[in-house]
Design goal:
single chain; alpha/beta; Rossmann fold; Dihydrodipicolinate Reductase, domain 2; seven-stranded mixed sheet; six-stranded parallel sheet; 15 strands; globular; binds nicotinamide-adenine-dinucleotide; binds 1,2,3,4,5,6-hexahydroxy-cyclohexane; EC 1.1.1.18; NAD(P)-bd_dom_sf; oxidoreductase; GFO_IDH_MocA-like_dom
Length: about 325
Amino acid sequence: MTLRIGMIGPGGMGKAHIERIHTVISGGRVVAVSDVNPDNAKAVAEQIDGTAYATSAELINSPDVDAIMIASYGPAHKPDVIAAIEAGKYVFCEKPLAPTAAECEEIMAAEQKAGKKLVTVGFMRRFDASYREMKKILDDGEVGEALMVHCAHRNPTVPEMYTWDMAINDTAIHEIDTMRWLLGEEFVSARVDKPKKTSLRFEHLQDPLVLILTSESGVRVDDEVFVNCQYGYDIQCELVAEQGVVRLGDQELVHRADKLGRRNRLTMDHNQRFGQAFVTEVQEWITAVSQDRHTGSDSWDGYAAAVVCDAGVAALTADGEVPITMIERPALYA
Ligand SMILES: NC(=O)c1ccc[n+]([C@@H]2O[C@H](COP(=O)([O-])OP(=O)(O)OC[C@H]3O[C@@H](n4cnc5c(N)ncnc54)[C@H](O)[C@@H]3O)[C@@H](O)[C@H]2O)c1
Ligand SMILES: O[C@H]1[C@H](O)[C@@H](O)[C@H](O)[C@@H](O)[C@H]1O
């Protein structure tokens, strides 16, 4: 049976997910769309031979839609996630689950009322083969205890609408989630170091910056966020453990040597760099939902990432460490 998916907000990310679902992923089809921009909904519906709904509520409650994907703008996620939960439908929500921890708590309250985990948050790096191999090496005890992790998250450029807090809320949120997952523990404090700013940026941005997180057991994670690096979409991660160091591969397809030297083509955006991770993530979600089970990051992960982001944003304007405090983890997410 094909899972009939309704997509809310088919913009850049949503269209990339549709393309994957309709070409390389099996078991699902996007049959309905809605968008705050009705012309976009109509155009996408025509392309996929599906239905355009005037509102997300109508799409969510349609008997012709089995499960929901949300790829709209972050601040719009919460009401649609809650409506999907109330309709008893599995929902895949692109990161962030919601921009603030308080909104994520509302989502968790609705899910607990439903008594079942229905929400998956689109943290795709958990599905990347290199990160998975790094986690396996750590979990198998091959390098001993983790001590430090050095991360870099570099984007070629960002548009002017990218606000000052997005370096944390929109960009570093990936490392925040991936590091919680890799280390298997929560963070207790955040600090932001603010180096010399690149001249090739919009004036309102602190770019680059370094977010420094400390985990419950004392592991120190530093994350260089540099969103106007000009040269490529460059994701780095080096885990330093007691008996070894594990570094993320560069995802090279080939090793090339020519008169310009030994070099490799760089990826330029998230869809290129994490293309296979997105495929695995969405495939696992479709398979799990078709079997009536939850998979991937849950609402607690969305909440935890939001709490750390809130502290990171506070640290952007504060001097020194900002403590991170979380609510007790509800039993549903144990
Ligand atoms: N996992 C990743 O690496 C990754 C990469 C890019 C974007 N994202 C996430 O995906 C989401 C979308 O990002 P994007 O780059 O595709 O943005 P986008 O602006 O290209 O697309 C967003 C779409 O949502 C629509 N929209 C906005 N508000 C809406 C609402 N209230 N109801 C219905 N539709 C609405 C817009 O009209 C647009 O079509 C964001 O949450 C973003 O953080 C994740
Ligand atoms: O929304 C995007 C997306 O999440 C990308 O994966 C990230 O590299 C960008 O910094 C962010 O702006």
